[in-house]
């Protein structure tokens, strides 16, 4: 049976996992349908594939957790851009190192506080 949508809306959401702090965004096509009994229902599609509603029980793409904050689109990417712009530029020449200093600095990992910090009210 071929389902033809009566109307299709395009929405995008930003997500932040409250367990591991991972943030991502996803765009959806929301198809509005009516079944044979006249009941309205919607079908969500992401990248052309049918997916469950992102509003019912989102799952973190990183850790599989289900405590996920849903925000309007652009929140995660703007937070990540803000964090990138606030980083100090890398020096053009490496600073001389003491031979005894062999510590390795860990890479920066995104945490929930990094993603949500720009949105805290002051």
Describe the structure.
With 122 residues, the chain is α+β, with helices and mostly antiparallel strands. Helix content is 14%, strand content 31%. It has helices spanning 75-86, 112-116, and strands at 7-17, 23-34, 40-46, 49-51, 68-72. The protein has a five-stranded antiparallel β-sheet with strand order 4-3-2-1-5, with helices on one face. β2 (23-34) and β3 form a beta hairpin. The termini are far apart. The model is unreliable at 101-108 (pLDDT under 50).
Give the tags.
5-stranded antiparallel β-sheet, 5 strands, 122 residues, alpha+beta
In short:
The chain has 122 residues and is of the alpha+beta class. The protein has helices at residues 75-86, 112-116, and strands spanning 7-17, 23-34, 40-46, 49-51, 68-72.
Number of contiguous helices: 2
Helix content: 10-25%
Structural class: alpha+beta
Strand order across the biggest sheet?
A: 4-3-2-1-5
Number of strands: 5
| Topology order in helix (H) and strand (E) letters | EEEEEHH
Describe the SSE topology.
Blueprint: E1 7-17, E2 23-34, E3 40-46, E4 49-51, E5 68-72, H1 75-86, H2 112-116
Antiparallel strand pairs: 1-2, 1-5, 2-3, 3-4
């Amino acid at each position: 049976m071929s389902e033809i949508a009566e109307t299709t809306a395009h929405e995008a959401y930003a997500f932040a996992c409250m367990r591991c702090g991972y943030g991502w965004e996803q765009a959806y096509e929301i198809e509005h349908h009516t079944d044979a009994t006249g009941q309205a229902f919607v079908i969500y599609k992401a990248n052309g594939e049918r997916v469950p509603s992102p509003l019912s029980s989102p799952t973190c793409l990183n850790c599989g957790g289900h405590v996920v904050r849903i925000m309007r689109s652009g929140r995660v990417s703007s937070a990540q851009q803000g964090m990138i712009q606030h980083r100090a530029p890398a020096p053009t020449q490496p600073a001389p190192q003491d031979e005894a200093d062999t510590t390795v600095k860990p890479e920066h990992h995104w945490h929930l506080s990094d993603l949500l910090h720009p949105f805290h009210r002051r």
